[in-house]
Amino acid sequence: MLLGVDVGGTFTDAVLFGDGLLVTAKSPTTPEDQSRGVMAAVTAVLDRAGRGAADVTVFAHGMTVATNALLEGRSARTALIATAGFADVVELGRQARADLYRLCAAHPAPLVPPALRFEAPERMTPDGPLRPLARDDAAALARRVAAAEPEAVAVTLLHAYRHPEHELALREALVAALPQAHVSLSHEVVGTFREYERAATTEIDAALSPLVGRYLRRLAERAAAAGLPEPAIMQSNGGLIDLGAAAGHAAWTVLSGPAGGAEGAAFAAADARVERALCFDMGGTSCDVCVVHDGAVAESAAGRIAGRPIALPTLDVHTVGAGGGSIAWRDAGGALRVGPQSAGAQPGPACYGRGGELPTVTDANLLLGYLPPDAPLSETVALDLGAARAAVTRLAEELGIAPLACAEGIVRVANAEMTRALRVVTVERGIDPRDHALVAFGGAGPLHAAAIADELGIDRVLAPRASGVLAAFGLVVAPRRRDAQRSVLRSGEALTAEAVAADVAALARQARAALGEADAEIAASYALRYRGQAFELTVDGPPQPTPAALREAFEQAHERRYGYRDAAQQIELVTVRVRALVASPAADGARLPRPLPDDAAPPVPGRREARLDGEQVALDVWRGALPPGLELRGPAVCELPESTLLVPAGWRGVVLESGGVELTREVAA
């Protein structure tokens, strides 16, 4: 059995998959110690399946520890060592405004204050040392750093991506002087050029690794005590790594949570034979969106989180602060706003009955009749309609409108924010959303999917089976993966097939060794540009490409992005990236088991009053797992085991073989 556990802002989700079973469970997230919520979810899913810890062969985990720490500004006491004259490179940055038209907007402050920045008496060039680092100088610098008593040290020297000798010497000296401190070296964390991005990413890695390491070691201890395998951890790139590597390199896991959802959505889209999909993951705290083409999630060579650059491969996921727990409020101008503040897991929305008094999107959905007032949201959360009505009514009185109108307004404002996020990953990048299907998941995603599809002109919506816990399911189908990358800066006569093949072979050995699999599958990508350009485009290619093949792939990408190609211009291979992959046992031809036996009695819908588009309507209410082939017509609501799907008038649906529901518009947009 394969076990996946994903920590969300409100709930921790668990999935047990294998042996013809798909069993799910939810448990409230425990922000003070997420490992407690993880083990509670594990216990719940094992009990529900009637299995024990000994049946689990793989335990995959997606977490938000690094993400939350970065967003909240929590980090270990960290020192930074840079080449003499470059200690302030993170603070100087790119000298670009945080916001072009808001002069008061500022970039986030560096995680390392000026007093903890140290300069190394060395200077490396692309061709080798200009000023060698003496052994005695390294030891003296390490003693000065040790006197500052940091928990972690980031070492980021010029051109270490090509010549790491000085960084390695400093680590040796730091380990002798500060044996308990964590040390992050930029050539190991990033391995590419551009000193600002490399330094900023290494600083994040050093500052967060002690926090992440403590959490993961605590989780590993609890898992071992329960008889479970050591957890494998989801990276930002959509692949799993061993717990020790994740504990030592927190920067690799800053988008761990959203990556699991993206991998689960890609599997669900492929399972439903959807080639072009927009993935829409609405949880309790945030909404994550991404694009899937031909079963693969779009990937970026670098990303940003909390305004800080991450110079590492990441799944191209865009996040906004709109979820079921997002708080609705009145701004200074009298307008209705939703988020980004969230009620979180404690106290949660007012309707959870845990002391929350502020209105949220979940409260609005309950008041409008979309959520069941007579059924629990999970095994531990029952919904309180009276508390939801009281919270929304207080806001409605501030705005001078009726409570139901306020509830509809909350939903519309949240939908607008999520629609804007989907436009960022589609329209703003030249992708037409109208020829895509919308794959909606997360506890709240299917509830808002049809309205968002209306806004984007999408005619097909897919709510996968287990959509409320799809991020946890994505963990069990994700591959094990290690990346290796290096800036090579090859052009002209230096750009030969033999040189590129040698670069790939060296990186493949490094990635396979880190993964511990000598026969792991290898995939390569190449970042190229025209000579003189400041930034590059990344294209996939074989491990042994010819310069002509690289040029053609790059120029096709350049023409798609910028509308032209220049055959007379010389190209430059900037960075080579290699991925070592071992597929999950669940991903090789696996299909989701049928939710019900073939001879199950057909369900009969109930009825419930709800408010849709300003009018009171009677909804058909379908509850529980639904048999394949069942046809639905709006207005209706499907109360699925982990989420709720709203089917407005003008939409019809059918239950798929997997148990998911596919909606199509009766009249094309």
Q: What do you see in this structure?
A:
There is one protein chain. The radius of gyration is 26 Å and the shape is globular. The protein has 16 helices and 35 strands. The strands form nine sheets. Strands 13, 14, 15, 20, 23, 24, 31, 34 and 35 form a nine-stranded mixed beta sheet that branches. It is 32% helix and 28% strand. The two termini are 43 Å apart. The chain has 669 residues and is of the alpha+beta class. A hairpin with a 6-residue loop joins strand 26 and strand 27. Among the domains are: 326-336 and 345-405, no CATH class; 480-582, Dna Ligase, domain 1.
Class from secondary-structure proportions: alpha+beta
CATH class of the domain at 480-582, named Alpha Beta
Radius of gyration: 26 Å
Mean pLDDT across the residues is: 91
Helix coverage percent: 25-40%
In short:
The chain has 669 residues and is an alpha+beta fold. It is globular and about 80 Å long.
SSE layout and pairing:
Blueprint: E1 2-7, E2 11-18, E3 21-28, H1 34-49, E4 58-62, H2 65-72, E5 78-83, H3 89-92, E6 117-120, E7 123-125, E8 128-131, H4 135-147, E9 152-156, H5 165-177, E10 182-185, H6 186-189, H7 195-225, E11 232-234, E12 240-242, H8 243-248, H9 256-271, E13 276-282, E14 287-293, E15 296-297, E16 299-300, E17 303-305, E18 308-310, E19 314-315, E20 318-320, E21 326-330, E22 336-342, H10 361-367, H11 385-399, H12 403-425, E23 437-441, H13 445-456, E24 460-463, H14 470-477, E25 480-491, H15 497-515, E26 521-530, E27 537-541, H16 547-562, E28 571-582, E29 606-612, E30 615-623, E31 631-633, E32 636-639, E33 644-647, E34 651-655, E35 661-665
Helix pairs in contact: 1-7, 2-7, 4-5, 9-14, 10-11, 10-12, 11-12, 12-13
